[in-house]
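WARN retry 2 of 3 for item q-0093 after timeout on previous attempt; input resubmitted unchanged.
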Amino acid sequence: MLTPQDVAHIAELSKLSLSDEEKEKFATQLSSVLSFVDQLAKVDTADVVPMAHVREVTNVLRDDVVQISDTETRNQLITNFPAKTGDLLKVKAVFE
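OK item q-0093 returned
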């Protein structure tokens, strides 16, 4: 079981300030949670297939398809784009 001193230490690491009442209350509540986690750790999972998600996850995005635009539309886009070098359009960096 966690003590109020344990909770005070956890709160300090988490940059939380707790009253003495809250430390007592959270000591009981966190001990209950840890007790439940301990029960889960005892369950035999040897035959359970590891998974990343409970439900099957599929990509819902469409495939990228290159579409050729007509020359007039392309030239208008380049002309009206605010930042460019020649025919290349400058956009904000995604990665720094």
